[in-house]
Write a structure and sequence with these properties.
The complex is a heterodimer.
Chain A (H helix, E strand, L loop, with lengths): L7 H8 L15 H6 L4 H24 L9 H23 L1 H7 L1 H4 L5 H9 L6 H31 L1 E4 L3 E4 L2 H7 L10 H18 L8
Antiparallel strand pairs in A: 1-2
Helix pairs in contact in A: 1-8, 3-4, 3-8, 4-5, 4-7, 8-10
Chain B lengths: L5 H44 L7 H11 E7 L5 E2 L8 H6 L6 E8 L2 E11 L4 E8 L6 E8 L13 H4 L18 E3 L10 E3 L5 H17 L1 H5 L1
Parallel strand pairs in B: 7-8
Antiparallel strand pairs in B: 1-2, 1-3, 3-4, 4-5, 5-6
The chains are: A mainly alpha, B alpha+beta.
């Protein structure tokens, strides 16, 4: 019997990665890109969207092909699919949002090596139907994007005093404070180590609030 | 069918490679004109930036065509030669042997002319580049804009900020006797009266030295033209 696409069980596929099973804070995957592109909210957002696109594409394609992919070369096949989708994204960004593509620079290419994507392909898409694989991709990409944007908001606000959103543009929040009162932007926030620390603080808060993640030792 | 047989595996990979290659080649070819346009518009923006004209990407082309009235190609002796100044890759010209061509852009607004010279050099981590604009006397700096690929944020990366670029205005390339001096980025700060020095970036010494080296080497090439 076929199951409704948005059944309770399937909704869990979307909800879990946002909190209980977050790819960055719980599974600790895809960390390196999270450190690199969270200086501005806009780049974090575009990166999240790019990963969403690649993830959905790769998960659905691999799921459709799961019965015809020879198991001996399945990792190579997955890599080729992911890599092609990433190149597509890169080319499209370069053509339509050139500024953003310049900021993302090499990190778009590095989506290929984002462990979240390969992880979901191996763990989920190879053994499930396209419909649920799609939901799984959406859930995990949102879980990834959520962390990127939260980290980027903190880093940009305290590092540069602004928040840059796509479409809306740059909102200056702490800049007048810096000009008038001698308040200094925290330059350290712009550097990669602070992304790691911000993610660490996020994990700390998440673990202290989410009972499922509290380990009994 | 046995999906794990050798024949099937080889067949599968062949078909996959062909399909993927077709898709990627098609996308790349169809998006290429737009990507090239973006790069050109950015270059126009940067050139205009050096004379203090800030325009958005969409307006860059119209402004460029309006204000940049002449694009000249110079050889090593400062003589004008035929060529497409806009599309010269300056970095290649410095590296290549033999006949070298260097572009210069003439900006004209309300009767005053400025000469814009493209610069390329090395920072700490990667390439730095920029444009420097000289007034009609071919000596006084009218403006400068720099950019970088991967300099350290907050340190070397500051070369693309206004506070670093603004002090270049009014500096001179030649001293009173006409000797070539270029402009030096000075660690610890330049004296106000120094016509050939500007403040360096604290903590960004190597990038700052890169800017100095870039200016000395580039302006030297243009010396015959600037003195004519």
């Amino acid at each position: 019997m076929s199951e409704a696409l948005f059944s309770k069980k399937n909704m869990k596929l979307i909800k879990d990665p946002l909190n209980d099973d977050n790819p960055i804070t719980v599974q600790v995957l895809g960390i390196c890109s999270a450190l690199a592109i969270t200086v501005k909210v806009e780049t974090a957002f575009v990166m999240a969207m790019s990963v969403l696109f690649v993830m959905i594409g790769a998960n659905v394609i691999v799921s459709l092909l799961r019965k015809v992919i020879p198991s001996r070369i399945r990792i190579i096949v997955q890599l080729v699919i992911v890599a092609s989708l990433v190149i597509l994204v890169d080319q499209i960004l370069k053509a339509f949002v050139y500024d953003v593509s310049k900021q993302l620079s090499v990190f778009v290419g590095l989506i290929i090596t984002n462990c979240i994507i390969m992880g979901r392909l191996e763990a989920f898409a190879l053994g499930n139907k396209p419909g649920v694989s799609f939901l799984d991709a959406v859930g995990n990409a949102f879980g990834y994007g959520l962390i990127l944007i939260v980290v980027a908001v903190f880093r940009e606000l305290f590092g540069s005093g602004t928040l840059t959103f796509p479409v809306i543009g740059k909102i200056e929040i702490l800049t007048s404070l810096a000009e008038n009162t001698g308040y200094q932007h925290n330059g350290l926030m712009i550097l990669p180590p602070m992304a790691l620390i911000t993610v660490g603080i996020y994990i700390w808060i998440q673990r202290s609030r989410n009972k499922k993640l509290i380990e009994n030792h | 069918m046995d999906v794990n047989s050798n024949k099937y595996t080889i067949g599968f990979s062949l078909i996959m490679v062909v399909i993927v290659a077709l898709i990627l080649a098609f996308t790349s070819e169809s998006l290429k004109p737009m990507q090239k346009k973006n790069v050109e518009l950015e270059k126009m923006q940067n050139i205009l930036q050096s004379v203090g004209v800030s325009v958005s990407r969409d307006e860059a082309e119209a402004n460029f065509n309006q204000f940049i009235t002449e694009q000249i190609v110079l050889d090593l002796n400062g003589q004008k030669v035929e060529g497409d100044a806009f599309n010269i890759d300056v970095l290649k010209e410095y590296k290549s042997g033999g006949q070298k061509n260097f572009p210069i852009f003439v900006y004209e607004n309300k009767g005053s002319r400025k000469f814009i010279i493209p610069l390329v050099g090395k920072g700490l981590w990667g390439p730095i580049w920029g444009y420097i604009a000289l007034d009609e006397d071919k000596n006084t700096v009218a403006g400068a804009s720099f950019d970088h690929k991967t300099e350290t944020p907050g340190l070397g990366a500051e070369i693309n900020q206004g506070w670093f670029q603004a002090p270049f205005v009014g500096k001179k390339v030649f001293d009173e006797t006409g000797t070539y001096k270029s402009i030096t980025v000075i660690k610890g700060g330049a004296k106000d009266s120094d016509l050939h020095g500007v403040d360096a970036i604290s903590g960004g010494t190597i990038t700052s030295n890169g800017v100095t080296e870039m200016l000395i080497r580039t302006l030297k090439v243009y010396e015959p033209f600037l003195k004519s």
